[in-house]
Specification:
65% of the residues lie in helices and 0% in strands. The chain is mainly alpha-helical and 274 residues long. It starts with a helix and ends in a 5-residue tail after the last helix.
Length: 274
C-alpha cells in the first residue's frame, strides 16, 4: 500500500514541462518585450517632437512611424510568447507560433521574390533611397538614419555620391544659392578612427570633383548595392526564425502531455477499483 501511495505522489509531482524550455522562452520574449516598449516610446516621442508640416511632408519615409509600427507588432507578439510560456497557456503559445510562422513565410517570400525579380527589387530600393535623399533636411530622424547607414556601409548616395544633387541644399546647379551647393553630408567622408572631433564640413564641394579625386576624401560608391548585398547576406536569419519556431512548439507538446497526465491521474484517483 505504501509503495502504491509513493508512486501516486510521484505521478502527481512529475511534469512533462521542461523548466529549461519554459523559462528560456519566457526570458527571450521578456527581453524583446522590453525592447518593444523602448521602441514605441522613442517612436511616440520622436513623432510628437516634429513639426506637423515637416512630418506630413515625408510621412512615407518617416523612421518614427516605422519604429512605432515595428514596436507595436513586437510588443503584441512577445507578449503572447512571454505570458503564454509563463502561464503555460496553449492558446497564447499557438498565437505566438502563428505570428512567427507568418514572419518566416513573409521573409522567405521576400527573399525569393527579391532573387527572382532582382532588377525590380533594386529599383524599389533605389526609389526609397532617392526619396530619402530628397527629404534629408526635412526630418532629423531620417537625417540621422541616413548618416548612420552611410557610415555603417561606407557608402554615399544611392548609386554614387553625385546623387546628393537631388537634394535642394546639395544641388550642384549654378543657380543654387545654398552654402552646401555641390557638397555631400559629412557621413560620406573618409574618417579616421583616431579623430576626436568630426569635421562636418569635410564634404564641401565634393560633387565638383571627379570620381577618382573625390575618392581620396569621401566614399564614392552608392548605398543601393551595399544594402542589397547586406540583405542577401543576412538571409541566414530565416534559419534562426525556423529554429525559434521549434521551441514554443516543443513547449506546447509538453503542456499537452502534462494535461493528459493530469486527466489520467484524476480518473484513477476517483476509480474505486484502484
Amino acid at each position: 500500500m505504501g509503495k502504491r501511495a509513493a508512486l501516486s505522489i510521484y505521478d502527481e509531482e512529475f511534469s512533462f514541462v521542461s523548466p529549461v524550455v519554459k523559462y528560456l522562452l519566457f526570458i527571450f520574449n521578456l527581453i524583446f518585450w522590453m525592447i518593444s516598449l523602448v521602441m514605441m516610446s522613442i517612436g511616440v516621442y520622436a513623432r510628437m517632437m516634429k513639426h506637423a508640416e515637416a512630418a506630413m511632408a515625408c510621412l512615407a519615409v518617416d523612421p518614427a512611424i516605422l519604429l512605432l509600427i515595428v514596436g507595436v507588432l513586437m510588443f503584441f507578439i512577445t507578449f503572447c510568447g512571454c505570458v503564454g510560456s509563463l502561464r503555460e497557456n496553449i492558446c497564447l503559445l499557438q498565437t505566438f507560433c502563428i505570428f512567427l510562422t507568418m514572419i518566416f513565410l513573409l521573409q522567405l517570400a521576400a527573399g525569393i521574390l527579391g532573387f527572382v525579380f532582382s532588377d525590380k527589387a533594386r529599383n524599389k530600393v533605389s526609389e526609397i533611397i532617392n526619396n530619402a535623399i530628397v527629404h534629408y533636411r526635412d526630418d532629423i530622424d531620417l537625417q540621422n538614419l541616413i548618416d548612420f547607414g552611410q557610415k555603417e556601409f561606407s557608402c554615399c548616395g544611392g548609386v554614387t555620391y553625385t546623387d546628393w544633387s537631388q537634394n535642394m541644399y546639395f544641388n550642384c546647379t549654378t543657380d543654387n544659392p545654398s552654402r552646401e551647393r555641390c557638397s555631400v553630408p559629412f557621413s560620406c567622408c573618409l574618417l579616421s578612427k583616431d579623430e576626436l572631433v568630426i569635421n562636418t564640413m569635410c564634404g564641401q564641394g565634393m560633387q565638383e570633383l571627379s570620381f577618382l579625386r573625390a575618392g581620396a576624401f569621401i566614399h564614392t560608391n552608392g548605398c543601393i548595392d551595399k544594402l542589397v548585398n547586406w540583405i542577401h547576406s543576412n538571409l541566414f536569419m530565416l534559419g534562426g526564425i525556423a529554429l525559434g519556431l521549434a521551441i514554443p512548439q516543443i513547449l506546447i507538446n509538453q503542456i499537452k502531455d502534462q494535461i493528459e497526465l493530469q486527466n489520467y491521474n484524476l480518473q484513477h484517483r476517483t476509480d474505486p477499483w484502484q
